[in-house]
Description:
- By secondary structure, the chain is α/β, with parallel strands linked by helices.
- The chain has two domains: 243 residues, Aspartate Aminotransferase, domain 2; 102 residues, Aspartate Aminotransferase, domain 1 (Alpha-Beta Complex), CATH 3.90.1150.10.
- The chain has nine helices and 14 strands.
- The protein has a seven-stranded mixed β-sheet with strand order 2-10-9-8-5-3-4, sandwiched between helices. Strands 11-12-14 form a three-stranded antiparallel β-sheet, covered by helices on one side. A two-stranded parallel ribbon has the order 1-13.
- Helix 7 packs parallel to helix 9.
- The two termini are 34 Å apart.
- The site of pyridoxal-5'-phosphate (PLP) has 11 residues, from helix 3.
- Its EC number is 2.6.1.52.
- Pfam families: Aminotran_5.
- It is an enzyme of class 2 (transferase).
Amino acid sequence: MNRVYNFGAGPAMLPTSVMEQARDEMLNWQGIGVSVVEISHRSKEFEVLLTETDELMRELAGLPEDFEILYMHGSAQMQFAAVPLNLLDLNPAHKAAYLETGNFAQLARKEASRFGNISIAASSEETGFDRIPAFDPASLDPDTSYVHLTSNNTIFGTRWHQFPDTGKIPLVADMTSELMSRKLNFEQFGLIFAGLQKNLGPSGMATVLVRKELLGHAMSQTPALLNYVTYQKNHSMPNTINTFAIYIMNLMLKWLRDQGGVAAIEQLNAKKAGLLYDIIDNNDFYIGSAHKDHRSHMNVTFNLADSTLDKKFLDEALVRGLYALKGHRLVGGIRASIYNAMPMEGCQELADFMKDFAKQNG
Ligand SMILES: *Cc1c(COP(=O)(O)O)cnc(C)c1O
């Protein structure tokens, strides 16, 4: 089987065992004689799958009962509109504060600006988004409806190691590139959303974990399919849900449980990232892009000191079965995305290659 180590940022690699199970069950799911993509989302079997997925999610995330789990169309960026439409009306001032730590944070802020009074509470744009900016929640207007941040900055390779305490003002987090990769204290959050395609499954859908008390305040112009209450009332099936995405997510959650859950994978993720950051730090050949104190455990970004070698690096990596290491088009350089599904061996293989390449070309 010609599987490579896939370092792509997303849609990202899924564990081989998950892909194999999906393959084996593709034509005949649960002995029904049809595929999971060929059955009604209203069927008993699918309803059971969806409920089981909720339970797995709640158990593995450690999600308290006062949070609702929703599955919505449109992946992460649809939430850039859904969040303001559902939450801005929490306060008549229609204010929201955005913490600008990268491209996705910026896109979210721009989308929200269509609907209310949006401000930038802190930004690291001046330093090329190489860090998480200092932010004092005391600087927020008390009539702010919510604060938005991107917990892991997929393109720039930074993350919030600690989350700001915004007190009574709900904290909203785009966790597309790290949900279920680290333990969370849900007390700190009002709403968390994530596109599935990095740690949870295929593209096209998002999961939204939202405090029940925040629901029911959508602005009057909110389209039905962007209104969280529509999903809450219909077990996320006001219309036809992406049945295949739920199925793969269900397999991914079971796989995560088999790995020991979030706490265990968080430790493994730290080791995987550490292996690569060690090489970057101990070799003048490589230059890390992110400030050391704010480094992501999911996306390791770096440059070659001599960027004319980038192409050679990528070509030779591919020959060794190390795929999709090219940095995002906005920043260039190299990016190794090492989500939950990337095994330690893949990171070890990349670390060995980086050492060899530096020796031969340094
Ligand atoms: C990948 C990613 C997105 C992408 O949004 P889609 O709508 O799912 O394409 C958004 N936010 C973050 C933090 C991401 O990593």
